[in-house]
Write a structure and sequence with these properties.
Elements (H helix, E strand, L loop, with lengths): L5 H5 L23 E6 L2 E8 L1 H10 L8 H14 L11 H8 L19 H8 L8 H15 L1 H4 L3 H21 L1
Antiparallel strand pairs: 1-2
Bound molecules: zinc ion (ZN).
Zinc ion binds next to helix 2.
């Protein structure tokens, strides 16, 4: 990528600019100014490109390549609903607090006598998806996609109760996915 260099004319003895990092494109000598995720599974890890090569990257990048249509929709919902800041522990919507309160993890003050858990974490998450053990992960995933479709704002006119439900479902699915990973 050619860069206009009026400074080089006006200040012939100016030191060449030192880059914090170079463009990740092999053979490119430009500065890496624009972050690009390493992969779909590593969205918070970056390589850095110059403007020209970040454009090329963005053009080639198809986040959803290889995903089925249902998975794409579920992923979209997952991203938009799940990544909201209101999901920090202890500050989330009612459903979220209810789940954790039963464990007593986030209470202040003296230690309480240990409680008998009525269910395991996995069973609770399954119940949120209207499932019971034993169940294969493929079945969990299929149910998750089905519920996301059913509760999608486009399908129900943005019913707030459904949105709360969808948050709990996303939470449950995230747990189950990590347990089955
Ligand atoms: Zn470059």
């Amino acid at each position: 990528m050619a860069r206009p260099t009026p400074d080089a004319v006006n200040e012939p003895f100016r030191r060449p600019r030192e880059f914090e990092r170079g463009c990740a494109e092999p053979g490119c000598a430009e500065e890496g100014l624009y972050p690009a995720p390493l992969s779909r599974d590593r969205l918070r890890e970056y390589k850095w490109y110059c403007l020209e090569h970040i454009r090329a990257f963005n053009k080639a990048w198809d986040f959803f390549a290889g995903m089925k249509e249902d998975e794409i929709e579920a992923q979209r919902r997952f991203d938009t609903v799940w990544n909201r800041p209101s999901w920090r522990v202890g500050t989330g919507p009612k459903g979220f607090d209810d789940i954790h309160d039963d464990f007593g993890f986030f209470r202040d003050g003296e230690a309480e006598p240990p409680r008998q858990r009525p269910q395991t974490e996995e069973e609770r998450a399954l119940a949120e998806l209207e499932l019971q053990q034993p169940v294969a992960f493929e079945e969990i995933k299929a149910r998750y996609i089905e519920l996301v479709k059913r509760l999608h704002p486009d399908a129900n006119g943005g019913n707030p109760e459904n949105e709360e439900r969808l948050k709990r479902i996303n939470e449950a699915y995230a747990r189950l996915r990590s347990l089955h990973a």
